[in-house]
Design goal:
Blueprint: E1 3-4, H1 10-19, H2 26-36, H3 50-59, E2 60-61, E3 66-72, E4 78-83, E5 89-96, E6 101-104, E7 108-110, H4 119-123, E8 125-128, H5 131-147, E9 162-165, H6 175-186, E10 198-202, H7 206-215, E11 219-223, H8 229-235, H9 244-255, E12 263-269, H10 277-286, E13 292-298, H11 312-324, E14 329-331, H12 354-366
Parallel strand pairs: 1-2, 6-9, 9-10, 10-11, 11-12, 12-13, 13-14
Antiparallel strand pairs: 3-4, 4-5, 5-6, 7-8
Helix pairs in contact: 1-2, 5-6, 7-9, 10-11
Bound molecules: S-adenosyl-L-homocysteine and iron/sulfur cluster.
Length: 367
């Protein structure tokens, strides 16, 4: 059995070194080769003893998901479709901007939380991604951005400086693997990103928000999308389990350990559903006690969604109400339109839902 070293954080890699009769500190050396230099062949790890390189070659591999497609949009946004077995695929998007490069990373194949306006949610849940598949997205992005010529403004735009866990899936529903991947993103021997530049986006899994605060507090974005429980129950079904009052209290607790002194509330703008003046005013009242910023996301349509994007005028009025109440509010630019690389459009491929079917069968069996 070969071991995929991309599946390990520092602790796992140290344990692995001990298992094969090496000193645990070798883990840091290995981490640099794997994550900073993107090396896959142990023979090339020139500061390791030849005997160790041979041993590693015999028992281990460094294996990321395979790239199925790689598209660059007119605005420089780049999207990779990655194969993760059984006909399933996930998507990763790189968004270059003047002063940063943001990678949007997926955490699951599909999503069980079934938000009604989300194409990932509509596809249902297949499985959690492994650590190798999550950190592999950053590994692949760094490697390919380095190696391929690319119509970006400058070299500075070809570096991943920020990660947002806003691709397919609910990161906090795949807690252990996501946290191990986050640890690697932050580790100076791996990617060395600042905690403030790594953001987890959640639809509001309250107990896991508390665990994240304890284990690995990074920047937090919360998908609010509605100013009251009755509307949020419809749009984000997990709200029935963790309603707004409970969710906002969890946000307050998170802030005691967060690297930033605000929570980002995401709010998808759905025409005639959650975008009225009254909704904006209700939202201002709702978040009164939580230091926060808003990110309004114009709805990205997909076939059969049943929703429409709010008009630019409605979005502007909504934003003005929040701004006048003192909240920093941004409207997310729609990037990579020509390659369907925007939020909620990361359809990927969820072909094999056998697990979901099996899970449902079990649920019915115990009822
Ligand atoms: N599961 C996490 C993160 C992934 S989605 C979450 O729900 O927060 C990242 C953001 O895109 C979330 O705010 C999500 O609600 C939003 N989103 C989903 N579908 C969308 C769509 N079709 N148009 C615009 N935003 C969408
Ligand atoms: Fe899952 Fe997030 Fe989509 Fe909701 S919005 S279904 S939590 S990926």
């Amino acid at each position: 059995m070969t071991t995929n070293l991309l599946d390990y954080g520092l602790k796992g890699l140290s344990d692995f070194c001990v298992e094969i009769g090496e000193k645990p500190f070798r883990a840091k050396q290995l981490m640099r080769w794997i994550h900073q230099f993107g090396i896959t062949d142990f023979v090339d790890m020139s500061d390791l003893a030849k005997s160790l390189r041979e041993k590693l070659t015999a028992v281990a591999v460094i294996e990321s998901p395979q790239i199925t497609s790689d598209h660059v949009a007119a605005d420089g946004t780049r999207k990779w479709l990655l194969a993760v077995g059984a006909g399933n695929g996930i998507e990763t998007v790189f968004i270059p901007e003047a002063n940063r490069g943001t990678l949007c990373v997926s955490s699951q194949v599909g999503c069980a939380l079934a938000c009604t306006f989300c194409s990932t949610g509509k596809q249902g849940f297949n499985r959690n991604l492994t650590v190798a598949e999550i950190i592999g997205q950053l590994w692949i992005a760094n490697k390919t951005l380095r190696e391929t010529s690319y119509n970006c403004d400058s070299d500075a735009n070809r570096i991943v400086t920020n990660v947002v866990m806003m691709g397919m899936g609910e990161p906090l529903a795949n807690f252990e693997n996501v946290v191990t991947a986050l640890d690697l993103m932050l580790d100076d021997h791996a990617y060395g990103l600042s905690r403030r530049r790594v953001t987890v986006s959640t639809s509001g899994l309250v107990p896991a928000m508390d665990r994240l605060r304890e284990r690995c507090p990074v920047a937090l974005a919360v998908s609010l999308h509605a100013p009251n429980d009755s509307l949020r129950d419809q749009l984000v079904p997990i709200n029935k389990k963790y309603p707004l009052e409970v969710l906002l209290a969890a946000c307050q607790r998170y802030l005691t350990a967060a690297p930033r002194d605000f929570i980002t509330f995401e709010y998808v703008m759905l025409d005639g559903v959650n975008d009225s003046l009254a909704h904006a005013r209700e939202l201002v009242e709702l978040v009164r006690d939580v230091p926060c910023k808003f990110n309004l996301i114009p709805f990205n349509s997909f076939p059969g969604s049943g929703f429409k994007r709010s008009s630019s005028a409605a979005i502007e009025v909504f934003r003005d109400v929040l701004m006048q109440a003192g909240y920093v509010t941004t409207v997310r630019k729609t990037r990579g339109d020509d390659i369907s690389a925007a939020c909620g459009q990361l359809a990927g491929q969820v072909k094999d839902k056998t697990r979901r079917t099996a899970m449902n069968a079990r649920v019915h069996a115990v009822k």
